[in-house]
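Whether sequence alone determines local backbone shape is best considered at the level of individual chains. The sequence in question and its structure tokens are set out directly beneath this paragraph.

===
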Amino acid sequence: MKDGLEITWGSGSPNAWRVLLAAEVKKIPYTSKLIEFSGDDLKKPDFLAINPRGKVPAIRDGNCSLYESLAIMAYLERRNPKPAIFGNTPAETGLIWRVISEFECYMKPAWETMLTPVIFRQIAEKKDQMRTAAETVHKELARLEKAIDPDEWLAGGAISAADCAVYPFIKFMVRVAQKDEVQPLGLGLHPFGDRYPGIEAWMKRVESLPGYARTYPPHWK
């Protein structure tokens, strides 16, 4: 089961990026299978056999196929237990899952409402919803900014699944906030580091990790 791990992902997908980061942090060898969103790769029978929902990420590992980013990260943890990214003690595990759950429940829905119109070029008709969603995003970012200790990670002194799970979405948001068509909305996300220096410093720690460059979206370069 430990030979032949293949990760299928798409450039810029935060969910797929989570899995790549987790694999790199855990130093798990894998075959990278990058697919194009603009083509029909997600609809091909060989990919639908792995993920019938037609979304990335997805993995194939021997006879095991799996999709959904957090499920894949949990799989990688059991597959290669060391270094642990879901904690070594009950308290560590609980903290890591709390951080992930807070992001999934409170920030991510607002994140999607705020940024999806940019992706699908619907800013004009959805700018009011975007601004309202930005208020919630800022509330959660402020909580995160307050919680991060200098030189530490989201769930303590070691990098964990929480960092892998949250970072791609924050990075994606910072990139989108810089776009010319987004600036007039006044979402308050650029320049990001002026408002959230602690989060920006944490992001730089993630970006200094060995293997990070292999996970970076190719079309962003």
Summary: The longest strand covers residues 6-10.
